[in-house]
Amino acid sequence: MSKIEARFILEAQGNIKSYVENALKELVEKIKGMKGAEVFDEKWEPTEKLDEGMFSSLVDLGVRCDNVEVFFGIILGFGPSAVVIQKPEKLEITMGELQNVSNDVINLLHAFAQANARMRFGLK
């Protein structure tokens, strides 16, 4: 199977500049430590001060993913602002890989639904 080569735009925002920068650095280190993911490029933008004392830090990561599960693991686990797939032009995916990714999406949606119910209705 072909590796997926993509660029992931990650952003962190907060009201303390050093916290924002460190949080984004930690995310990048976690991606670098993922089995099946190879970071081959990092383009860091300078941290910007936004309105009302907020700061924003941004990095554009080039990542080679061994398979679609690793690719979607980054998307679901790190919530990039944008993704640009560079290679391959076409991708063959097995039923097992698609099933695993589908279940990951379902689990994430259930977690959001439970968190929303707890927040809105005081459920535990």
* Computed Rg: 17 Å
What is the total number of structural domains? 2
Number of continuous helical runs:
3
Quick one: biggest sheet?
4 strands, antiparallel
Structural class: alpha+beta
Helix content: 40-55%
Strand content: 25-35%
User: What is the residue-averaged pLDDT?
Assistant: 92
> What's the total number of strands?
4
Overall geometry: flat
Strand order of the largest sheet: 2-3-1-4
CATH superfamily of the largest domain: Ribosomal protein S6/Translation elongation factor EF1B
What is the string of SSEs from the N terminus onward? Answer: EHEEHEH
**Cα-to-Cα separation, first versus last residue:** 43 Å
- The fold-level CATH name of the largest domain is Alpha-Beta Plaits
* Main CATH class of the largest domain: Alpha Beta
What oligomeric state is this?
single chain
Question: Outline of this structure?
Answer:
The protein has helices at residues 17-32, 68-78, 95-121, and strands spanning 4-14, 37-49, 55-65, 82-87. With 124 residues, the chain is α+β, with helices and mostly antiparallel strands.
